[in-house]
Write a structure and sequence with these properties.
single chain; about 140 residues; alpha+beta; SH3 type barrels; 2 domains; five-stranded mixed beta barrel; 3 helices; about 35% strand
Length: about 140
């Protein structure tokens, strides 16, 4: 859910609801209606808030991932450590921030740039959440 989009749409749709409610009498008389949705302010306000919540939830899916977006990538690493019994390989997963170099949708492959300047490719696994950026599974990298 994108709170910024939701808040903006609540303000915009609430303002439109107020205008529609204020103009309900002339609009209804022009259309030859005695009553309509425009004459009930609370229904207009409920419609505005519900539409705003739906827009906030749907926005990441409609937008996808755009060039320049920050994404979270989990990169598998292997490090060799010296040990008295001989060298040992340690495998771990490192979470890094990458920048999208192309647009894409969930399940699609895009190019990314790591903070150290290296490039890579990956598959988008999740869109932006309320408090987290989109995530990507790295498939190829220059590292």
């Amino acid at each position: 859910m994108n709170f910024k989009v939701m808040a903006f749409s609540i303000v915009l749709l609430s303002a439109l609801s107020l205008v529609a409610f204020g103009l309900s009498a002339p609009i209804n008389s022009a259309l030859g209606l005695k009553e309509s949705l425009l004459t009930d302010f609370w229904k207009l306000l409920a419609l505005s808030i519900g539409s705003s919540i739906l827009l906030g939830i749907a926005f990441p899916y409609l937008r996808g991932v755009r060039r320049g977006d920050k994404l979270i990538a989990q990169v598998s690493r292997k490090q060799t450590q010296s040990h008295p019994s001989g060298p040992q390989a340690v495998f771990f997963v490192q979470t890094v921030l990458v920048t999208a170099l192309s647009n894409g949708w969930k399940g699609g492959k895009i190019k990314v740039r790591f903070d150290n300047g290296h490039n890579g490719e990956g598959i988008i696994s999740a869109y932006q959440g309320t408090f987290s950026p989109a995530t990507i599974q790295i498939t190829e990298s220059e590292l």
